[in-house]
Specification:
This protein is mostly helical and 347 residues long. It contains twelve helices and two strands, in the order H-H-H-E-E-H-H-H-H-H-H-H-H-H. A two-stranded antiparallel ribbon has the order 1-2.
Length: 347
């Protein structure tokens, strides 16, 4: 669902930067260093896990499309909505700056569409209410919360993409037709993401349940592994997914690209049938953003520059990118807690 700069007018892009920036400011303000210190290793490894997961597009059968993990629900369920949202911003910013995945002008919109709904709507309105219910099967509630949360929040994100392109005045994208393509395909993508999210959360619940938000420390007696062991397992999974699993990603276009351009070359629908090189909004701001991205992206499209067919480039991107987001997520959240603590101390 990464939007390109061509899908947005500069005014719409600026509006989404303000909205995402406000959400980031609230997140930094609400971080509490004492609460997050024990979770810093989990924060780093889960940011790397989501980065790697976003590299693997899974095929949506019978459509000619594919989807990939967004990760907002997964991160907020383990880290809380504020640290989860900041981690997602780090992931999306590093993807845009160093891997040319998503436009830099569109970064604010991508943070809103892919992170805000999963981290805040998914957490506060779906995950937390379901998990706060007493009694019943906790594993079943985790599965229900994960699947329901991912499906609903991806629907909201997909609809936001449609609104943002409509507000940008892209005449090639009739609103009703675009919505009619975006919503069903992202419903399927959300279902698969929900299953993946549930699998990870159930693993954590079975091995170290107190790492889950809301489930709480009262379940710590059920722990089967140490925190270090759980973090090690997730770290190994992130390396394997980014370094090896990324080699098996679907070549089909993702839900947004599929809606715009179709997949007629493989015998599927052309959908909107747009020319990938000629559609969208052109602006000086977008041109400047593209020039910056061209200079900063040292592994564009997760490949060696000038040697796109070399599979090693994809593996290097998955491992290096995961390490970068892990470190950056931890540093950002540490700074958030630091400033919060200083403010509290002064009062």
């Amino acid at each position: 669902m990464h939007m390109a700069d061509a899908l947005l007018a500069p005014t719409v892009a600026a509006t989404m930067y303000v909205a995402s920036g406000a959400a980031a400011g609230v997140s930094v303000y609400n971080l509490k260093k004492d609460d997050e210190a024990a979770k810093l290793p989990v924060m780093g490894v889960m940011a790397a896990f989501v980065f790697a997961g976003q590299m693997i597009n899974y095929t949506i059968p019978g459509t000619g499309s594919s989807g990939h993990l967004c990760g907002g629900m997964l991160l907020s369920s383990l880290l809380g909505p504020y640290a989860g949202f900041l981690s997602m911003i780090v992931i999306l910013a590093i993807q845009g700056l160093f891997f040319a995945d998503g436009g830099l002008m569109a970064l604010g919109a991508n943070c809103w569409n892919m992170a805000f709904y999963g981290c805040f709507i998914g957490y506060f309105l779906i995950y937390r209410p379901i998990m706060k219910k007493k009694g019943g099967n906790t594993r079943l509630r985790l599965i229900v919360a994960s699947i329901l949360g991912c499906m609903i929040t991806l629907q909201l994100g997909a609809f936001s993409v449609c609104i943002e392109t409509f507000a940008s005045g892209i005449s090639e994208l009739p609103f009703a037709a675009f919505v009619g393509l975006m919503q069903p395909i992202h419903l399927a993508i959300g279902l698969i993401e929900g299953v993946i999210t549930a699998a990870v959360l159930v693993f954590v619940y079975q091995t170290r349940p107190e790492l889950l938000e809301v489930v709480g420390k009262e379940n710590s007696a059920k722990a089967k592994l140490s925190v270090k062991s759980v973090v090690a397992v997730l770290a190994i999974a992130a390396v394997l997914i980014g370094g090896i699993g990324s080699q098996f990603a679907s070549s089909n276009p993702d839900g947004l690209e599929w809606s715009l351009f179709g997949n007629a070359d493989e015998g599927y629908s052309a959908n909107m049938g747009l020319d990938e090189e000629e559609f969208g909004v052109s602006s000086g701001v977008a041109d400047t953003a593209a020039e910056i991205q061209e200079k900063t992206a040292f592994l564009p499209d997760y490949a060696f520059s000038g040697d796109e067919e070399n599979p090693v480039g994809t593996s290097v991107s998955g491992i290096l990118g995961g390490a970068m987001v892990a470190l950056a997520a931890v540093v950002i959240c540490l700074l958030g807690g630091f400033f919060k603590k200083r403010k509290t101390a002064k009062v």
